[in-house]
Amino acid sequence: MKANLKELTKGIFKENPVFVIVLGLCPVLGVSSQVSNAIGMSAGVMFVLLFSNIFISALRKVIPASIHIPAYIVIIASLVTITEMVMHAFVPAVYSALGVYLPLIVVNCIILGRAEAFASKNTVLDSILDALGMSIGFALGITLIALIRELFGSGTITLFPVGTFSGVINIPWFINNPIRVLALAPGALLLMGFLKAFFDWNTLRKKDR
Amino acid sequence: MRKNIKYAMILLTICAVSAFALALTNSITSPVIAQMDSNNRVKALEAVSAGYDIGEQKEVTGHAYVTYVIDLQKDAEVAGYILGLKTAGYGGEMTLVASYTAQGEMLFAQLLTHNETPGLGKKAEDDGYMDKFKGTGGAKPVPTNKTMLSSDDAQAVSGSSVTFTAIAKAINGGSEYVKSLGGVK
Hints:
The structure holds two protein chains of two kinds.
Chain A: H1 2-10, H2 25-30, H3 35-58, H4 68-90, H5 92-98, H6 109-119, H7 124-154, E1 156-158, E2 168-170, H8 180-183, H9 185-208
Antiparallel strand pairs in A: 1-2
Chain B: H1 2-48, E1 53-59, E2 66-74, E3 77-89, E4 92-101, E5 106-113, H2 151-156, H3 161-180
Antiparallel strand pairs in B: 1-2, 2-3, 3-4, 4-5
């Protein structure tokens, strides 16, 4: 059981897909301009990663090694298209917010990477835990970047509208003094670099002890 | 040979199951999406109608930007037009609706569909984005370049010049189309 739990926790910190393995950076940089986009993207990645890991793990003895990639791509692309159709119909605001990045989950390296490196060699239970851990790690990474970018770059925190709440929280002082570059693409790259350096420094510091 | 046939059969089975799952999902979601698109279009037409009565839609073919035209009427007289516009943004085709006076001055506009980048070109959906084009196209030219905007407006479209230019050109094309109709009939 402890070994199983390790599959869940490793993706959150030790093998965090964003800051340690450095996978799936395109959506991390692209949609992290608002917190709501980061949460929506995380939900999409979690759904696709969870089900692709389940199907690929369950079919690992059926799919021969030489047709891994085409079989995985068909499964992943189908799951992404299903996610896209369901989001379009039932959560149009999130679908609209994610835009082009939603279909791009098909080529997100985390999904194919975990399918090939983990789900194709492990049991369904371990694959579910791996998918959950990696998804949570991805969600934490992209949400942290989005929070910093939106707070300092726009002076707001955008969540989802509920009832009379518009979903946008204006942060005093920051809203009148935004660091515009953080809201733009170069700011995302700069921030990613600084955070990666921080996580590397933290890992090395722990190793030295 | 037998190995290749086995591989092909495995892939065929995966594709068939995937196709079935997609067809099932599509049969559930497509009516919801179609209804939503129809509601959004009606809302957009009402939002840009400026209080005038909305007439019948007439398709326009062969124009670079205009796809359909709807008369805006007041007391059974044509007071202006709503145009369906299409243009090419950073993420591909964008569609919008815009209303004009009979002299080609833009009244209101709203973005309908697009694939612009979240956080950048997607800001064109925001309330107020189209305000920079309001009242242009008549005596005042449509700002088709960032240098024609105030510094605040220019900063608002910073990082999404392609989207801004595409929308501006479509609105300008719509204005020219209305002028070619020859004013109030």
